[in-house]
């Protein structure tokens, strides 16, 4: 007898998918967006939605469940981490003193991910707020080649870096979710 969950998917059309195409909110069914900025924003929205989907249907304890020792990674930790990262990107864009860390010391985003409903609500609220702040800061700079912040980082580079960060962590979320309840899919 094993403690490992059995692999499963909700999809019935394609067994390697998370959800059937008609039920997948990421699939617009039409052509992709026009233009570079719109394409970048579409990819970012897709990965943000994927992260939310990987967390859906789990309780606080499941969201905070760690992967395998010695890692402190959990789905809730990823949500908290991405909130912290969004704040960092906002700090790269804005002038003046940086906003303080959301969770304090290094790795507190993962280490402080506890299986309590209030902690889950707070983490998702933090993520939504920090995403909106970084989005608004970047929207004020429509030229993708413009260099912003003290480090003079190109807006394009920040946008691509955001997509890369979410894509990488969605890969982690795939494995974490499978470890929690066996659900698989893209």
How would you describe what is shown here?
- The chain has a single domain (21-181), classed as Up-down Bundle (Four Helix Bundle (Hemerythrin (Met), subunit A)).
- With 186 residues, it is an all-alpha fold.
- The model has no long low-confidence stretch (mean pLDDT 91).
- The chain has helices at residues 36-55, 60-64, 75-93, 108-111, 117-139, 155-181, and strands at residues 147-148, 153-154.
- The relative contact order is 0.19.
- InterPro entries: DinB/YfiT-like, MST-like.
- Residues 1-36 are annotated as: Disordered.
In short:
This is DinB family protein. Helix content is 53%, strand content 2%. It has 186 residues and is an all-alpha fold.
Strand content: under 5%
Q: Unreliable segments (pLDDT under 50, ≥5 consecutive)?
A: none
The end-to-end span amounts to 28 Å
> Would you state the CATH class?
Mainly Alpha
Which architecture does the CATH hierarchy give at level 2?
Up-down Bundle
Query: What is the radius of gyration?
Result: 18 Å
Total count of helical runs of at least 4 residues: 6
How would you state the average pLDDT, rounded? 91
Number of domains: 1
Question: What is the number of beta strands?
Answer: 2
SSE pattern: HHHHHEEH
Strand count, sense and closure of the main sheet? 2 strands, antiparallel
CA-based shape: flat
> What is the assigned CATH homologous superfamily?
dinb family like domain
The main sheet orders its strands as: 1-2
- What is the third-level CATH name, the topology? Four Helix Bundle (Hemerythrin (Met), subunit A)
Helix and strand content put the structural class at mainly alpha
């Amino acid at each position: 007898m094993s403690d490992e969950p059995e692999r499963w998917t909700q999809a019935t059309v394609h067994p390697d998918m998370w959800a059937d195409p008609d039920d997948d909110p990421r699939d617009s069914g039409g052509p992709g967006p026009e233009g570079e900025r719109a394409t970048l924003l579409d990819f970012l929205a897709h990965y943000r939605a994927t992260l939310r989907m990987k967390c859906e249907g789990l309780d606080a304890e499941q969201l905070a469940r760690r992967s395998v020792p010695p890692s402190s990674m959990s789905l809730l930790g990823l949500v908290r981490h991405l909130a912290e990262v969004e704040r960092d990107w906002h700090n790269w864009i804005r002038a003046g003193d940086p906003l303080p860390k959301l969770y304090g010391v290094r790795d507190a985003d993962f280490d402080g991910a506890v299986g309590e409903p209030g902690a889950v609500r707070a983490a998702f609220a933090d993520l939504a707020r920090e995403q909106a702040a970084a989005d608004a800061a970047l929207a004020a700079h429509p030229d993708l080649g413009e260099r912003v912040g003290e480090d003079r980082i190109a807006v394009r580079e920040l946008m691509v870096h955001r997509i890369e960060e979410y894509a990488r962590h969605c890969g982690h979320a795939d494995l974490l979710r499978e470890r929690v309840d066996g659900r698989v899919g893209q």
